């Protein structure tokens, strides 16, 4: 299964890309996270909480231009061709 990962801000700085297609073994956000962390270890500091062995609570996930409100982010299912972005918290004013 293939998804399109969109990179913004720090993610774009680390990857040097604004998007890429990733082949996943698992069709979940956990599977996507595993693929990304294997490819870009520096992203781990941005999104991963070692204490709970899961994505940080403050990471927002956008799938096909829709912000996810699912509390169990890792188990969210993905479909072939989905566009996904992880967003860091930001402040505005």
Q: Please state the structural category.
A: alpha+beta
What is the CATH T-level topology?
Ubiquitin-like (UB roll)
Order of strands across the widest beta sheet?
A: 2-1-7-5-6
Strand content: 25-35%
- Count the E strands: 7
Order of helices and strands: EHEHHEEEEE
How many whole angstroms does the radius of gyration measure? 12 Å
Q: Looking at the chains present, what oligomeric state does this protein adopt?
A: single chain
Would you identify the regions where 5 or more consecutive residues have pLDDT less than 50? none
Helix content: 10-25%
CATH architecture: Roll
CATH superfamily: Beta-grasp domain
Q: What is the count of distinct domains?
A: 1
Task: Report what the structure shows.
- The protein is α+β, with helices and mostly antiparallel strands.
- It has one domain (2-87): Ubiquitin-like (UB roll) (Roll), CATH 3.10.20.30.
- 24% of the residues lie in helices and 27% in strands.
- It has helices at 9-15, 29-39, 44-47; strands spanning 2-6, 19-23, 48-49, 54-55, 60-63, 66-67, 83-87.
- The chain has a 5-stranded mixed sheet with strand order 2-1-7-5-6, with helices on one face. Strands 3-4 form a two-stranded antiparallel sheet.
């Amino acid at each position: 299964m293939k998804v399109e990962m969109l990179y913004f801000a720090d993610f774009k700085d680390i990857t040097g890309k604004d998007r890429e297609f990733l082949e996943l073994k698992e069709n979940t956000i956990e599977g996507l996270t595993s693929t990304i962390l294997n490819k870009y270890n520096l992203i781990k500091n941005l999104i991963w909480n070692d204490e709970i062995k899961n994505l940080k609570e403050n990471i927002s996930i956008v799938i096909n231009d829709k912000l996810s409100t699912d509390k169990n982010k890792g188990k969210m299912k993905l479909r072939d061709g989905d566009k996904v972005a992880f967003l860091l918290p930001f402040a505005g004013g």
